[in-house]
UniProtKB/TrEMBL annotation:
UniProt keyword Signal present: yes
Lineage of the organism: Eukaryota, Metazoa, Chordata, Craniata, Vertebrata
Cellular component GO terms, alphabetical: extracellular space
Top-level lineage group: Eukaryota
Alphabetical list of Pfam families matching this protein: LBP_BPI_CETP_C
SMART domains: BPI2
Cellular localization per UniProt: Secreted
Domains: entry comment: The N-terminal region may be exposed to the interior of the granule, whereas the C-terminal portion may be embedded in the membrane. During phagocytosis and degranulation, proteases may be released and activated and cleave BPI at the junction of the N- and C-terminal portions of the molecule, providing controlled release of the N-terminal antibacterial fragment when bacteria are ingested. The N- and C-terminal barrels adopt an identical fold despite having only 13% of conserved residues.
Residue span, Lipid-binding serum glycoprotein C-terminal domain: 6-185
Annotated transmembrane regions: 12-31
GO biological process, one term: defense response to Gram-negative bacterium
Species of provenance: Halcyon senegalensis
Annotated protein name in UniProt: Bactericidal permeability-increasing protein
Function comment: The cytotoxic action of BPI is limited to many species of Gram-negative bacteria; this specificity may be explained by a strong affinity of the very basic N-terminal half for the negatively charged lipopolysaccharides that are unique to the Gram-negative bacterial outer envelope.
Length: 186
């Protein structure tokens, strides 16, 4: 009998457990790597809402009164370690974030304006196309929490929550997907 020809194909086996995903999240959280400052020069010029008191005054009207048309900065950070669970079809995660807004005065002093806590559920799915490994991230749920304002009335939380959801959808998810962009498999 003649042996059948054997196909020699490369194979990649990737295994991720809840422990690995949550250990990585803990490490990044404790190292302070889950922080990002957003400034107005990071937003596209055509974006309908710029990081200025004039624009964000729609959500906190007295902001524009106290600080007329001043630039603002947004600091996004994790309030606590993200939690992940691994399933055969995807990696599911819950992110516990806060968005703190600051008014940037002409002397570069940052004055706290408001803080909004927001929790988001995300799903990451791996993809394999030819010899390229990648993935996609999808925002599956988002809940706004408490808001706090420094010396100003608390902003309209629902409107801010909708703005942050839109920002996550417009910037956060594409950024996560660009980080997961396909890489060649060895």
């Amino acid at each position: 009998p003649t042996p059948l020809p054997v196909a020699h194909e490369s194979m990649l086996l990737v295994a991720v457990t809840d422990f690995v995903a949550n250990s990585a999240a803990f490490t990044y959280f404790m190292a302070g790597a889950m922080r990002r400052n957003i400034t107005s020069d990071m937003l596209p010029r055509r974006f309908p809402l710029q990081l200025r008191t004039k624009s964000l005054g729609l959500f906190a009207p007295q902001l524009q009164e106290h600080y007329p048309d001043q630039p603002m900065e947004l600091q996004l950070s994790a309030r606590r370690q993200p939690l992940f669970s691994c399933r055969p079809d995807a990696l599911h995660g819950t992110l516990f974030a806060s968005a703190e807004a600051f008014v940037v005065l002409p002397n570069a002093t940052r004055v706290p304006a408001f803080l909004l806590n927001i929790d988001a559920n995300v799903t990451g799915k791996p993809t394999l196309t030819g010899n390229r490994l990648g993935g996609t991230v999808k925002l599956t749920g988002c809940v706004g929490g408490s808001a706090w304002a420094q010396g100003l009335p608390v902003p309209q939380v629902k409107n801010l929550e909708n703005l942050l959801k839109f920002g996550l959808w417009l910037f956060g998810v594409p950024w996560a997907n660009s980080e997961c962009c396909p890489h060649p498999v060895p």
